[in-house]
């Protein structure tokens, strides 16, 4: 009986993994952008004094931004211009090299900040300005305004 339960659990787990792996790129990129937004939100709360400075939170947020920014361009294959209420502008597919360079710039900015994690609220505020400008530059060009 225990073996049957284990086999069933493994089978269910594999099905769940296949669903996660088979997600549409539009959904994956939306999740990545939400993760970046959550990381920016955590940094913003510290910068505004809404949350106390916490080096671990800052580091985790910067790591999340770096990882997601670099993985982001891979979620824009041809044929994914529409669907899942995407806010991706057609300009992405027209100039993928520039889009990827902007994502890399955000990842690099996060890595630079990780090399010397901001040590206080003021440092996090300065980091937010750097990251925010990079985010805004990409959004201005490659995000559909709703």
Automatic annotation (TrEMBL):
Transmembrane segments: none annotated. Residues 1-22 form the signal peptide. InterPro entries: Cyt_c/b562 (IPR010980), Cyt_c_II (IPR002321), Cyt_c_prime (IPR012127), Cyt_c_prime_subgr (IPR015984). Heme c binds at residues 135, 138-139. Gene3D superfamilies: Cytochrome c/b562. Binds 1 heme group per subunit. Keywords: Electron transport, Heme, Iron, Metal-binding, Signal, Transport. The keyword Transferase does not apply. GO terms for cellular component: periplasmic space. GO terms for molecular function: electron transfer activity; heme binding; iron ion binding. GO terms for biological process: electron transport chain. It holds the Pfam family Cytochrom_C_2. This is Cytochrome c-556. It comes from Pseudorhizobium banfieldiae. The lineage of its organism: Bacteria, Pseudomonadati, Pseudomonadota, Alphaproteobacteria, Hyphomicrobiales.
């Amino acid at each position: 009986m225990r073996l049957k339960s284990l086999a069933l659990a493994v089978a269910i787990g594999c099905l769940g993994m296949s669903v996660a792996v088979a997600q549409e790129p539009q959904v994956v990129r939306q999740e990545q952008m939400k993760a970046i937004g959550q990381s920016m939100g955590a940094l913003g709360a510290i910068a505004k004094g809404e949350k106390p400075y916490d080096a671990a939170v800052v580091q985790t947020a910067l790591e999340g931004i770096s990882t997601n920014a670099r993985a982001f361009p891979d979620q824009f294959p041809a044929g994914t211009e529409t669907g899942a209420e995407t806010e991706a502008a057609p300009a992405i597919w027209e100039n993928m090299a520039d889009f990827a360079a902007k994502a890399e710039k955000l990842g690099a900015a996060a890595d630079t900040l990780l090399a010397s994690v901001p040590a206080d609220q003021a440092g996090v505020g300065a980091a937010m300005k750097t990251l925010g400008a990079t985010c805004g530059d990409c959004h201005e060009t490659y995000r559909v305004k709703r």
